[in-house]
Automatic annotation (TrEMBL):
Entry keyword set: Chromophore, FAD, Flavoprotein, Lyase
Gene3D superfamilies in the cross-refs: 1.25.40.80, DNA Cyclobutane Dipyrimidine Photolyase, subunit A, domain 3, HUPs
Listed name of the protein: Deoxyribodipyrimidine photo-lyase
Site (Electron transfer via tryptophanyl radical): 312, 365, 388
Organism encoding this protein: Comamonas serinivorans
GO biological process terms on file: photoreactive repair; response to light stimulus
Enzyme class, broadest EC rank: lyase
Cofactor(s) demanded: (6R)-5,10-methylene-5,6,7,8-tetrahydrofolate; FAD
InterPro entries tied to this protein: Crypto/Photolyase_FAD-like_sf, Crypto/Photolyase_N_sf, Cryptochr/Photolyase_FAD-bd, Cryptochrome/DNA_photolyase_1, DNA_photolyase_1_CS_C, DNA_photolyase_N, Rossmann-like_a/b/a_fold
The record's free-text note on cofactor binding: Binds 1 FAD per subunit.
Catalytic activity: cyclobutadipyrimidine (in DNA) = 2 pyrimidine residues (in DNA)
Residues reported in the UniProt entry to bind FAD: 231, 278, 281-288, 378-380
Similarity comment: family membership: Belongs to the DNA photolyase family.
GO molecular function annotation: deoxyribodipyrimidine photo-lyase activity; DNA binding; FAD binding
């Protein structure tokens, strides 16, 4: 029998659930990726690092599949690449290849779920089976439930149950190579269209410390492994290299979550506090997939329905200032520049800028969430939505809404010498450490001493934090 594995956000050929099941069940297995015009046409810019990342990773995956086939003596192997509406492309391809089954790895996003249901129905009409497999998450859907059989809505008890259930079986890699002899060669004439043919321009991706593809992911992992033990101490400081930078690889599946979690679990068992903390971060990822699966309304609405009553401000000038890194709060502005220049933003800063937008500027979390969706390399609906709703206090956590981040004290705590700020705001390079967190508090002589003209070289603060805080308390009071 014959199968087609349709790869989407799982761009690797090792430890891959759908590929493994296809190779076990069938004697001829094709692999395909579609540059989906339904998604690509909706992107706001023709210069998109994500598309460039995927393009490079797909090229590497094609070579990876060829090597895998060659090493097991199969005649071919490789990736079939299409450019068009994914649903129609896959149904057509499955029919042209005459396959018996199409296999995918499960996607938790409502639109993707609806798409997969339509594809399954269309394939069924042609007598072709469709199956989806857990691969992106370690534990998904109903695997972690409360004693009452309900999905969790608070992270800490979820994590406790998640850790209890995360056993050796869940962490075991799928041994794809063992069955690779069933890989089928793509039909003759297949090629990977260059980026320009897909309608996209080159980006600055190659200049960033972000290697692409499966090999890139392993390079970042090797770099992180010796640092994992110190993760719990270093992870909150954006000026230090404390985190893994693997999020984009997890987003596009160029690395297996099982490989990462197994490494962390082993170190955690040996007593590494850093590994325990990192494993908790991977639990957050599963948590938000689970929330999105059970509560798809969060895509457009607050997790807590009562929060729909909150009156947000339109505030066009403040919105522009936030987007353009001109708020007058250096940590916020440096973070926004990091986002626009690199497509990455450190987790602590995501929390700070999201809190600033919603609690200092009084702007709806949905607008900030969309802005992140346009710019983050690792943009993931579940984690992004979860993070924004957490910051706005509209989400699924026990955090009270009156806990409001102070952008100045956050800066003093987590970028004490202003190392991160100076990297992205060179105009503040000469400002002494004591004032780097809020130059607006400097006296005229101090400003003159470092040659800084506020309102000219660097903006005055767009809001007063103490007053903004009072307004937010009022905004949430009727709840
Ligand atoms: P590390 O600290 O090395 O963590 C390892 C991995 O754990 C990450 O790669 C990620 O997959 C996962 N992880 C860590 N924290 C979280 C979290 N809070 N929620 C879910 N998964 C987590 N993460 C995304 O992957 N995509 C997003 O679009 C996204 N948007 C966010 C928006 C906001 C407002 C906030 C507060 C957080 C968001 N996060 C998002 C979570 C987190 O900021 C990033 O995963 C992390 O900064 C990525 O860097 P890293 O890979 O070096 O992380």
């Amino acid at each position: 029998t014959t199968a087609l594995v349709w790869l989407r956000r799982d761009l690797r050929c090792d430890d891959h659930a759908a590929l493994y099941h296809a190779l076990r069940r069938h004697t001829q297995v094709y692999c395909a990726f579609v540059f989906d015009t339904t998604i690509l046409d909706a992107l706001p810019s023709r210069e998109d690092r994500r598309v460039a990342f995927i393009h490079a990773s797909v090229a590497e995956l094609h070579r990876g599949l060829q090597q895998l086939a060659a090493s097991s003596g199969a005649p071919g192997g490789g990736l079939i690449v299409r450019h068009g509406p994914a649903e129609a492309c896959i149904v057509q391809l499955a029919r042209d290849l005459g396959v018996d089954e199409v296999l995918v790895n499960r996607d938790y996003e409502p639109e993707a779920r609806a798409r997969d249901q339509r594809v399954a129905a269309a394939l069924q009409a042609h007598g072709i089976a469709f199956s989806d497999h857990k691969d992106q998450a370690l534990l998904d859907r109903d695997e972690v439930l409360t004693r009452q059989g309900q999905p969790y809505s608070v992270f800490t008890p979820y994590k406790r149950a998640w850790l209890q259930q995360l056993d050796a079986f869940q962490l075991k890699a799928y041994p794809v190579a063992r069955h690779a002899r069933h890989l089928a060669p793509p039909p003759p004439g297949e090629r990977l269209p260059p980026l320009a043919e897909l309608g996209f321009a080159p980006t600055n991706l190659a200049t960033l410390p972000l290697p692409t593809g499966m090999q890139g992911a392993q390079r970042l992992l090797q770099d992180f492994l010796p640092r994992m033990a110190a993760y719990h101490q270093a992870r909150d400081y954006p000026g230090r290299k404390g985190v893994s930078y693997l999020s984009v690889h997890l987003r596009f599946g160029t690395v297996s979550i099982r490989q990462l979690a197994a490494l962390a679990a082993r170190q955690a068992e040996e007593g590494s506090e850093g590994a325990q903390t990192w494993l908790s971060e991977l639990a957050w990822r599963d948590f938000y997939f689970m929330i999105l699966w059970h509560h798809p309304h969060v895509v457009t609405q607050c997790f807590k329905p009562e929060c729909e009553r909150v009156q947000w401000d339109e505030a066009p000038a403040l919105w522009q200032a936030w987007c353009e890194a001109r708020t007058g709060y250096p940590l916020v502005d440096a973070a926004m520049r990091q986002l626009h220049q690199t497509g990455y933003m450190h987790n602590r800063l995501r929390m700070v800028v999201a809190s600033f937008l919603t609690k200092d500027l009084g702007i709806d979390w949905r607008r900030g969430e969309r802005h992140f969706a346009e710019h983050l390399n690792d943009y993931d609906l579940a984690a992004n939505n979860g993070g924004w709703q957490w910051a706005a206090s509209t989400g699924c956590d026990a955090q009270p809404w009156f806990r409001i981040f102070n952008p100045i004290t956050q800066s003093q705590r987590f970028d004490p010498e202003g190392r991160f700020i100076r990297r992205y705001l060179p105009e503040l390079a000469r400002v002494p450490d004591a004032h780097i967190h809020f130059p607006a508090a400097m006296k005229p002589l101090e400003l003159a001493a470092c040659g800084l003209q506020l309102g000219v070289d660097y903006p005055l603060p767009v809001v007063d934090h103490a007053r903004a805080r009072e307004r937010t308390l009022m905004r949430f009071t009727p709840l």
